[in-house]
Amino acid sequence: MMNGHFNNRNFFMFKRSLLLSTLLAGPALADISDEANACIDALRAQSGAAGGEILEQLGSEAGTLVRLRDATGTEYECVVWSGPEVASLKAVDGTAADANASAPIVSGTQRVQFDSGTSGTAMTVVLNPDTSVSYVLGASEGQTLNVDIGSHGGAIDYRIVNPDGSALLGLTASDTPYQGQLVQSGDHVIDIQNAGAQPVTFDVGIGID
């Protein structure tokens, strides 16, 4: 079952272009990362895909985002927690090269919902200058919240607010991930701010353990 937690340190990017037609038809290859192998297995189980390539991998000690394309040209984003365990696998529009251009512009308040059977989500979005977006997540006291934000360029900050309005995390630079046990039950708000003069594209991963 797809589950796990997201307690990354900082995102780092490295690009790989590896043909997977043999891999998807047989056992995993030693020169593919364990995280990519987990995504490949999930893709094979989900769609029966027969081939494709890894486009890029953004990861760290415990959480990884893998982008891959199957033989039909469909692209997928796969989130892998430590283990590795696949938290989510979903098809995305556009190519990896167009990811920044096609990322949706966000603002206001957005409720976070996880796909059935998963405990986290990840997305790539754009935040315009002097704008903020608030992600609202319902969670219970005692659960562990994990938030990791990776900017594609440009500075953004974030804070986390408890259901009663008190601060769970004060304003923090996006290159500092958060992992902590919740002390209240209800809607928690992850407020991400772009105080700069240019739009910022960023990845955000949110998970509950």
Which word captures the global form?
globular
Main beta sheet strand tally, sense and closure: 5 strands, antiparallel
- Helical/strand content category: mainly beta
Helix content percent band? 10-25%
Order of helices and strands: EHHEEEEHEEEEEEEEEE
Distance between the termini: 14 Å
Question: Which runs of at least 5 residues are low in confidence (pLDDT < 50)?
Answer: 1-30, 94-100
Mean pLDDT: 77
Classify the fold: give the CATH topology of the largest domain.
Jelly Rolls
Strand content: over 45%
Count every helix, treating DSSP H or I runs of 4 or more residues as helices.
Answer: 3
How many domains make up the coordinates?
A: 2
Q: Please report the total strand number as a whole number.
A: 15
Give the neighbour order of strands across the main sheet: 1-2-3-4-5
Q: What is the gyration radius calculated from CA atoms?
A: 17 Å
CATH class placement of the largest domain = Mainly Beta
> Which architecture name of the largest domain does CATH use?
Sandwich
